[in-house]
Amino acid sequence: MVQNPDVLADFVYRSIHTNVVVGKEITKMFYGAPHNTSDVRLVADRAQDFPDDFDGVLAD
Hints:
By secondary structure, the chain is mainly α. It has one domain (about 5-55). The chain has helices spanning about 5-30, 45-50, and strands spanning about 40, 55. Strands 1-2 form a two-stranded parallel sheet. α2 (about 45-50) links the parallel β1 and β2 (about 55). The radius of gyration is 14 Å and the shape is flat.
């Protein structure tokens, strides 16, 4: 993976989406109910890439 920059970039790109999906599922299992909102404090283009993952974007 490290020898192939395209694979590494793809991993980094998709890992944000994967973490959001898994985090929402863990929250639902732990609290017994899904989350109410999901905000992101990241580069805004990640929210543009996966718009259904987030309810809002906090930009500095």
